[in-house]
UniProtKB/TrEMBL annotation:
Pfam hit, one: Relaxase
Domain MobA/VirD2-like nuclease: 17-145
Name this polypeptide is given: Relaxase/mobilization nuclease domain-containing protein
InterPro entries, per database record: Endonuclease_MobA/VirD2
Native organism taxonomy: Bacteria, Pseudomonadati, Bacteroidota, Sphingobacteriia, Sphingobacteriales
Source species of the chain: Pedobacter petrophilus
Length: 399
């Protein structure tokens, strides 16, 4: 289950975005609340809702980005339209928007049911609805409403992580960091945090014991070498850049790298790739998280980086709307961007952990997570993390 605070905007373009979905039969306006006399009209145009919300926002000119736009998405079809409406109502109430005018729009154009919520950050008295730590609160509220205990989830994640074969402490940390956890070593114990709150801990000695007892599977390594060689000849290894997209369409910081080869191996074999890089420089190495075989390999043990990664004259930027980072995650280094299926529908065979989180301004890759601006008018493929490189929007590499 994921929740996202989507793009901020000075105007209420999210209304038009969502009503366009309805007009194309890709969405359904399932609830209109708090719009006063508008609710009694036989026909209401999108601009009528925009005008109403804009009039409320005008009561506090100090609030620049007055639009509130959020999304909740479960895995697949696990929640139907009515269940999502009920959940959205309770979530908005807990987030401080229960008395605000709002629109609920159910989207049905992806493999994952999801619902969008549009409202104003300014209330009827001209007060701003608190946005303090709202990305963290968004998940805490959702977890509470769905009965999810983050401490239990963290303990389960630690148990699963210890089942992997790894050879260094950093490799162990990567398994958990890619699920949205942040780990810090304090007095011989790793403190595990998520959404800014400590949810568990593990003695470093337990990690070291697994290092000494869990040498990498040589059989699996040889198997992966053959797989890599096979698909290296069939699939492009040219890397593309993954950058966050800033409000207004600007390009933000470099989040990571990927390639068609990475995508193919990830989707077909339960493998996750972490490219290691610094600043705007090209990767100097990579790590392979073999979720199917429960191994962590140094990439060069399987295929040299110079062969696994090709650097062309141009690269394709994948637009990840600002801010692309999961609350509580260990920074934004070496980000991995899954496709939509990996993002919102974790394979039942357990090849990927559920990261208890999706897209930001927001917050990130996960169950592997990700975020959004209609400035901007970004479609759901972007919102749900699908690579725009499929649309072949090339960009010259300025390295």
């Amino acid at each position: 289950m994921i929740v996202k605070i989507l793009w901020k905007s000075k105007t209420f373009k999210a209304v038009r975005y969502n009503t366009n979905k309805v007009e194309k039969n890709k969405g359904e306006l399932v609830k209109v609340f708090g719009f006063g006399a508008l609710e009694g009209l036989a026909e209401v145009k999108p601009q009528d809702y925009i005008n109403y919300l804009s009039a409320m926002a005008a009561r506090n000119p100090r609030v620049i980005n007055s639009q509130f736009h959020a999304m909740i998405s479960p895995k697949g079809r696990s929640l139907d339209k009515n269940e999502l409406v009920t959940l959205a109502e309770k979530w908005l109430l807990a987030m401080g928007y229960g008395d605000q005018p709002y629109l609920l729009i159910f989207h049905k154009d992806t493999q994952n049911n999801h619902i969008h919520m549009v409202s104003s950050r300014v209330d009827r008295e001209g007060n701003k609805i608190s946005d303090s730590f709202e990305n963290i609160r968004a998940y805490r509220v959702l977890n509470k409403l769905t009965g999810k205990d983050e401490k239990v989830a963290a303990e389960n994640a630690l148990v699963k992580a210890l089942q992997y074969r790894f050879t260094t402490r950093p490799q162990f940390l990567m398994i958990l960091e890619k699920q949205g956890y942040s780990l810090h070593l304090v007095d011989g114990s790793y403190k595990v945090s998520k959404f800014g709150e400590q949810v568990g801990s593990i003695d470093s000695l337990r990690v070291d014991e697994r290092i000494s007892n869990g040498s990498s599977s040589q059989e699996r390594k040889q198997q992966l070498k053959k797989i890599f060689e096979k698909y290296r000849s069939l699939t492009s290894a040219e890397v593309y850049l993954i950058r966050e997209k800033l409000p207004g369409g600007g390009q933000g910081r470099l989040l990571g790298y990927s390639s068609d080869l990475c995508d193919k191996l990830s989707s077909s074999f339960g493998i996750q790739f972490i490219f290691h890089f610094k600043d705007e420089k090209l990767p100097y190495g990579y790590t392979v998280l073999d979720h199917s075989g429960k191994n962590v390999f140094k990439g060069s043990e399987i295929m040299a980086l110079s062969r696994f990664m090709e650097v062309g004259q141009s690269a394709i930027d994948v637009d990840i709307p600002y801010d692309y980072s999961e609350p509580g995650a260990g920074g934004n280094r070496d980000q991995f961007v899954p496709n939509e299926e990996m993002l919102l529908s974790i394979p039942v065979n357990g090849e990927f952990f559920e990261r208890d989180s999706e897209l930001s301004g927001t917050s990130s890759i996960g169950d592997f997570s990700i975020g959004f601006d209609i400035s901007d008018d970004i479609d759901d493929e972007q919102i749900l993390g699908r690579n725009r490189r499929k649309q072949r929007k090339a960009r010259t590499n300025t390295r």
